[in-house]
Prior knowledge:
Elements: H1 23-43, H2 49-61, E1 64-65, H3 66-73, H4 77-89, E2 93-97, E3 105-109, H5 111-120, H6 122-131, H7 135-154, E4 156-157, E5 160-161
Antiparallel strand pairs: 1-3, 2-3, 4-5
Amino acid sequence: xxxxxxxxxxxxxxxxxxxxxxxxxxxxxxxxxxxxxxxxxxxxxxxxxxxxxxxxxxxxxxxxxxxxxxxxxxxxxxxxxxxxxxxxxxxxxxxxxxxxxxxxxxxxxxxxxxxxxxxxxxxxxxxxxxxxxxxxxxxxxxxxxxxxxxxxxxxxxxxxxxxxxxxxxxxxxxx
Length: 175
């Protein structure tokens, strides 16, 4: 899909270059604000935000191949491998070669990692409360952001690949 950006006629061209008109800046600012709040809330759990995301996926789905974990988290192996190594050293996960496919490494929760789930239950509620949004607003925002992500993953500008999943099936975004 080739997308040709067309400015809205009611907005003068010069307005499009204002910082307060940049959706990427608003999203980045919100992401940084979330990061700061998560840093505080996850400190007592001994987790970083990326580690928390790994734990969320493993709590939800159980043991997964590293590749599958990377797809779900939109992380490449160069980012995910050192993260998993630190988590393994902390006793939260263990990595094992898949008995059916020696090339594949599966990530399992340890007993300690599984037990941490109970302590983490309050984090999403505290995050939700901090937004000042009700649950319907949060669901609507998440839905819109998911739709935005899909659109950006599929976008191609000037005949070149967009900043996300390429039509050839690459699963991970380019940064």
